[in-house]
Design brief:
heterodimer, A: 396 residues, mainly alpha, two-stranded antiparallel ribbon, 18 helices, elongated, B: 372 residues, 2 domains, two-stranded antiparallel sheet, 16 helices, 69% helix, 3% strand
């Protein structure tokens, strides 16, 4: 078994296609670190000019409003709420001017909580940051709500704990935070698609020289297991070229720390709680490796069932992009999306609770994901086992 | 020479790589069609709303003040508020179907933006607004439309309009595609030198035949772009072949769509020839397909990695490999602006092709083959 594993292992790493996949990943990570990462422009950034503009606008209103006569109810509302709002804003500005980042984090957390409380309840009178209201986005208010509360919780974490704070940490630009942000966007797709590309031909390449390989004294099932193991190892190695880009980002913006807080949304309580960045990344990695196992076992099954590389690629991609077929905001309220394995593909968003928020579901959790995907893996492997022991398929 | 070419083409015909490449080109064209549909290209309301959005974001940095003529807001603030108002008028004119008003307000917007560049504090909002060149391209385009009495919006999937979008994108992908296609052009021959020694022609001629057959395939790819778009004529009409496209070539000018497509095709042919000859030379030097590909890709991305190189060495073919970027005048907005002209690019690449041909000829004359 071990010898066969070694044999497959060498084959895998001398395969030109696999080398190309790694090189493309390396290219991608360099490109990202060089051009995409510096142009990252978060909406919740540290921008003194914006704060000052908001502060002065409200302050001037408060100074000029005539409170001796009867007021319009909205004016009265503004007169009552603006002083508190501006107190937070002033604290933020002062802290930033004094470079007291801890005080800034505390005031910012308060500002986001208060702003969200005002805006979300305020109906159509007050608005979130204008960049949420893009063309065709009917959920701008919901997006802003989530982002403000998430920022409030994150900054609260910065204020409470004892971290090495910097503007880069606030804007999530450090290497580890970049990794965390990417896990919540398209990094899972890239990793899982490269897993598909690495695995697509691992069984079917044997059909080129069947007579050579028939000589191995092994059952097809054990051969398949060895191949799966090699593919899993190769897929996990795909993390390596990607981390090269992180080194570059780390040198530019600092590496951050594994202790930094990451806000996690709980749909039951509608609140955010904090976990450490290290824990978040660990959970993500575990989940992605589980996804690798699902993809590999599925592709082993299709390889012996359909015996075509393109069928492999197609089915793999169908699993990865299947979610787009049924994804609509709030659909989880009606349909039981938590039982579709494809709902868990955006690993980072599932773990941070954002998927629960957009699906209006409360079952898209780490535990549930492990259960659903684990069951799928078992099913795929079971069918593979039965088929590979069937006489007709014994010769692969 | 003719017989060699015939033989090479016979061999190439059975090469699966060519068929796969053709399929990739076709899939790309059809994929781009669906991309244009989903992105709602040519939807002026969407475009204007995006613009409105950016100006709102820029205004978020300013205290709300009196923006009237004698008001106490800063000059830039007043300018941005006026831009926002003009964009609203544009949106309204599209919704109500008043093309004249749309053109008029577009020119007004270009003037406002032009004035804003010189204003104090512009640096803080620069990321939300178009660059100087982009603004100038817009202005010339709208001026031309006004002069010709044409509409500002065209059916995005009509034949010529679609080709315009297509070639605008292909300019940045063509070199990569051809270098991946041609990176292994002579690897087989260099790995089994005894094979070529048996041919009854000089190796130089054989290489030329190989290059010609690759160029024929490249011609096929370009034709395929036109052929795959043909169904659009049936579904969405032919479109206007003389519709203006604003481009940079020395100064900002207006090309008709046909001229734009013609220049793009000319560029594509020269770039393909350049890439193929580069592959031959790199194959000879490196004797490895992947290394050849990486070196070529590195050439392609080097202007992005070292943007100051563009103004330092303007007569460098590498600068012109992404010709969409040249025609857009993007290089004018760099930190160190480089006034690269499309016509210079054709000349530089042409000269390089001649030089490379001479090198290839000199190396591959019969006598020196044994060293290879």
């Amino acid at each position: 078994m071990l010898n066969y594993f070694k044999f497959e292992f060498l084959h895998f790493f001398y395969n030109k296609k696999n080398i190309a996949v790694y090189v493309i990943l390396l290219f991608f990570s360099f490109y990202y670190a060089m051009t995409a990462a510096p142009s990252y422009d978060p909406i919740e950034k540290v921008d003194a000019q914006e704060m000052e503009a908001r502060y002065l606008t409200k302050e001037e209103f408060l100074n000029s409003v005539d409170m001796t006569h009867e007021m319009h109810p909205l004016t009265a509302y503004a007169v009552q709420t603006y002083p508190e709002w501006n107190r937070f804003e002033k604290e933020r500005l002062d802290a930033l001017a004094k470079k007291d980042l801890k005080a800034y984090a505390e005031a910012t957390s308060g500002w986001y909580t208060y702003s969200d409380w005002m805006i979300y309840a305020g109906g159509d009178m007050l608005f979130y940051h204008p960049r949420y209201y893009t063309y065709g986005n009917h959920y701008a208010r919901e997006d802003g709500h989530f982002a403000y509360l998430s920022a409030a919780s994150r900054y609260g974490g910065y204020a409470d704990g004892d971290y090495a704070l910097s503007i880069d940490v606030f804007e999530e630009r450090t290497a580890l935070q970049t990794w965390q942000r990417l896990l919540q966007s398209y990094l899972p797709f890239i990793l899982i698609v490269s897993c598909i590309l690495l695995t697509a031909d691992i069984v079917l390449k044997d059909r080129r020289n069947p007579t050579l390989l028939r000589g191995f004294p092994m059952s097809p099932w054990r051969k398949l297991l060895a191949k799966g193991g090699v593919a899993l190892f190769g897929s996990i190695l795909a993390f390596l070229p990607l981390s090269a880009g992180l080194l570059i980002i780390g040198m530019k913006h600092g590496f951050g720390s594994f202790d930094l807080p990451v806000p996690i949304y709980s749909h039951d309580e509608k609140t955010f709680s904090l976990i450490s960045l290290g824990e978040f990344i660990f959970q993500n990695t575990a989940f992605i490796i589980l996804w690798f196992m699902l993809i590999i076992s599925l592709l082993l099954l299709t390889s012996i069932l359909l015996r075509n590389e393109f069928a492999n690629l197609f089915i793999g991609c169908a699993v990865v992009f299947g979610e787009f077929m049924y994804y609509t905001r709030g659909i989880g309220f009606i349909r039981e999306v938590e039982w579709y394995p494809t709902s868990f593909i955006q690993v980072g968003q599932v773990l941070s609770g954002y998927r629960n928020y957009v699906y209006e579901s409360h079952m898209l959790t780490f535990k549930n994901g492990m259960l659903v995907i684990g069951l799928c893996i078992c099913l795929a492997l079971l069918i593979t086992f039965i088929i590979s022991n069937h006489r007709k398929f014994k010769q692969l | 020479m003719r017989n060699v070419l015939k033989t090479v083409i016979m061999i190439e015909k059975s090469n699966k790589k060519n068929i796969v490449a053709c399929i990739i080109v076709a899939v790309f064209v059809f994929g781009f069609m669906s991309f244009i549909t989903t992105e709602e290209k040519g939807n002026l309301v969407k475009e204007r709303t995006g613009d409105y959005q950016s100006v709102s974001s820029a205004l978020y940095k300013f205290q709300i003040k009196d923006a009237s003529e004698g008001g106490d807001g800063s000059g830039l603030y007043k300018n941005l508020v006026r831009q926002q108002r003009v964009i609203s008028t544009q949106r309204m004119s599209v919704r109500m179907g008043i093309p004249d008003l749309y053109l008029e307000t577009s020119l007004e917007l270009a003037d406002l933006r032009d004035a804003a560049f010189k204003m104090e504090g512009y640096k803080d909002v620069v990321m939300y607004l178009p660059s100087k060149t982009e603004n100038e391209l817009q202005r010339i385009y709208y001026q031309h439309l006004e002069k010709e009495g044409k509409f500002a919006s065209q059916e995005p999937l009509s034949y010529f309009q679609f080709l315009g979008y297509l070639f605008g994108l292909i300019g940045s992908l063509w070199f990569i595609f051809i270098s991946i296609y041609s990176c292994g052009i002579l690897i087989e021959e260099f790995q089994h030198t005894s094979l070529i020694k048996g041919y009854p022609v000089s190796f130089g001629k054989y290489v030329m035949a190989k290059c010609s057959s690759s160029m024929l395939m490249t011609g096929m790819f370009i034709l395929l772009l036109f052929i795959c778009s043909l169904p659009l004529i049936f579904y969405h009409g032919l479109g206007d072949p003389f519709y203006p496209v604003a481009v940079y070539s020395g100064s900002i000018e207006v090309y008709s769509m046909i001229k734009y497509i013609g220049i793009s095709v000319l560029y594509m042919i020269l770039i393909a020839l350049f890439a193929i000859l580069l592959s031959v030379i790199l194959n000879m030097l490196l004797k490895n397909m992947y290394l050849t590909m990486f070196v070529q890709l590195f050439f392609y991305i080097s202007p992005y990695l070292f943007p100051s190189m563009m103004s330092l060495v303007p007569f460098n073919p590498i600068n012109y490999l992404n010709f969409s970027r040249i025609l857009n005048g993007e290089t004018l907005d760099l930190a160190k602006p480089a006034a690269l002209q499309a016509s210079d690019g054709l000349l530089v690449i042409g000269v390089c092709i001649v030089v490379m041909l001479v090198i290839v000829k000199a190396f591959f004359t019969a006598g020196k083959l044994k060293k290879v």
